[in-house]
Design brief:
heterodimer, A: 299 residues, mainly alpha, MetI-like fold, 15 helices, 75% helix, globular, B: 315 residues, 67% helix
Chain lengths: 299, 315
Amino acid sequence: MIKTREERTFQVVANIIMALFALAAVIPVILLLISSFTSNEALVRNGYSFIPVEWSLENYEYVFLSGNKIVNAYGISFFLTAIGTVIGTVITTSLGYAISRSDLPGVKVMTFLVFFTMLFNGGLVPTYMNYCNVFQVKNTFWGLLIPSLLMNAFNVMLVKSYFKTGVPDEILEAARIDGAGELRTFASIAVPMAKPIIATIAMFVGINYWNDWNNGYIYITSATNLYSIQNLLNRMQQNIQFLVQNNAGLTSANVGLSNIPTEGVRMSMAVLGVIPIVVIYPFIQNNFVKGITLGGVKG
Amino acid sequence: MKHTNALGIVPKRKKGWSAFKKYLPIYFLALPGLAYLFINNYMPLPGLVLAFKNFNVRDGIYGSPWIGLKNFEYLFQNDAGYITRNTILYNLAFIVINTVLAITVAILLSEMTGKFKKAYQSSILLPYLISSVIIAYLVYAFLGTDNGFVNNTIFPLIGKEPASWYTESGYWPYILIFVSAWKSVGYNCIIFLATIMGFDRAYYEAATIDGASKMQQIFRITIPMLKGTIIMLTLLAIGRIFYSDFGLFYQVPRNSGSLYNVTNTIDTYVYRGLLELGDIAMSSAAGVYQSIVGFVLILGANLAVRKLDPENALF
């Protein structure tokens, strides 16, 4: 195809506009990264800057050498994400498969029970009361794992429609005629055929767990050894906020601040909080885009 | 063993215990998920009665005395107005601005041929994957009063005095709208991009032969053909207009009290009532208000979608 003059102009303009969008998207992350490698003194004296006066590794040294709190929080985050992703994906896939079986007696009622949760929910207060009073999840690992994150109706519906359209009844039927039981058919025929959607769901669930701060904030009030990295970051920021609001200025609060990590250290911890996402991002991106497209308009 | 036949019709006499036994393994597969929904979504529902009670810890949820609509009266005389206004106006701004930006980006990406296409898309999607806590850190790096990038570098350059970002409520509508766009345009453009990719290229080829310019093709072919998707997504967003992104409104303004009048939405109000102020009456009343209006809006939006295009309706 011969490129017309207009086409070339369009490509140039489009590239410029998109470059600006892309830059705007990553610049804050770059500032965070640079400030984590800035010496704390320079950060306090000259402020956040893309060209720091003094580069330094001191923040990371502090994080890795003195912070067993941080290592612990990191461990909690990884453990939580791993367990949550496995359990969440398994129960989502199984339920999605069950309600994709239109021959199942009672499937309409089950589908409605799943679907209704997308339309109406009790909200925070009753949910909180239920988890705290009935299940006593406060300050336990369950409080991080179970509330709201483990499974949601939207993912179940995604899996269901994938099984309905992507795994033909004839194949399941053939497996049964060959003598495979229902569970066998599910595990060795249906699941392998639904790998793409299962990978997508696992990724959605995993990212939600890694990024979650809400459960920890609500349900982990005193057991700080259960803080995930997000909760630790959140807590540090709040402590500082508290000191700033209750004192004339930072200088008079220096005593209290001594056990709060410095500005630079906090930024390096925030970097550590996003790094796992950035590292797996190239591998999950295509799947992620596919998943969003699958969810389509309903997403 | 009897099975469903090749046409997928269940033989009629397969009922009762034998049918149940045949399907037992599938019920077993459904059980953990249904149990979870029961615990997470259905068990809390009776707790909605709290909104109609004068709650005290000693008597518990069910023992506390009924007070009818008193909590709601109080809520509507005081805070309901501004939290509803914030929730709805922000959502409307997000819907309009994020949709326009997402469509722009989707069209540019779809028309683009260069080698950077993939890099652009990767970059703009990245913010969507970052947690609200860390987004708040990023915003703080720019807006911190003492050493933020804006006050230290940008404002001196253009000769402005440093601003006290976290106490001046005037800035926040713009900041929140910006952060929302920053976070979600990469995500929102994906559906539009996929839709555009599905369009028949023959229209564009015919238009090119007829001498239509690129801009004409965009405005006469792409955008009109996107109309259905735009309407659908907008209706569904309107169905969720009573819900807000809690992380955005709670974390990004750093829970700063002097900003509440422009940052408090129904979600943050419910949260603060329950866990910071211990005002369970107001909190649960606002929660019920949100659940019920939210429910009606979702039903209404879905009804509208079903009228236009039954394929895309939720039910």
